Amino acid sequence: MDLGILEKRWLTIIVRIALGAIFVAASLPKIADPPSFAHMIYNYRLVPGAMINILALVLPWLELLCGVALILGIWQRSATAIIGAMLAVFVIAISINVLRLHPIDCGCFDLTAAGRSPAEQMLDMLWVIVRDLAMLSMVAQIFLGTRSTPTSQ
């Protein structure tokens, strides 16, 4: 099946570098402030208490590693798969809290609580879901672009 532009090598490179840069940028505040990130994870009310600190320490480094791998073009399919899995988990976790009507700050890029109202936080959560779904489409494009043969590029 020919998907045209979606399979072009140049597009895949741009999307891969952009997604990698997004994940590197998202990882840095979390690496710099693990206690604040642990608090953000706790606010989701989805993770057993014993796992919160472990996740707060491991997840940002995994984001950084996968982001750098995409930027450098190494371990592309593995890094893309891990990022896709993380994004799916993020969408599910935020969606659960939207359905619970439990407003939270996602902790994706900024770990500081902005003091927004619950209604503003709920709207932000919906936008985060849209943003994460858009990034999942980037994951899909990378998989499409790396599966095609070099002659179709």
Characterise this structure.
The structure is a single chain. This protein has one domain. It is 73% helix and 0% strand. It has five helices and no strands. Helix 1 runs antiparallel to helix 3, helix 3 crosses helix 4 and helix 4 runs antiparallel to helix 5.
Count of helices? Answer: 5
What is the count of structural domains? Answer: 1
Alpha-carbon distance between the two ends: 14 Å
Structural class by secondary-structure content: mainly alpha
The shape, in one word, is globular
Short description:
The chain has 153 residues and is mostly helical. It contains five helices and no strands. The chain is globular, with a radius of gyration of 17 Å.
Which features does this protein show?
153 residues; globular; 73% helix; single chain; mainly alpha; 5 helices; disordered C terminus
Topology:
Layout: H1 9-32, H2 34-43, H3 49-72, H4 76-99, H5 118-147
Helix pairs in contact: 1-3, 1-5, 2-3, 3-4, 4-5
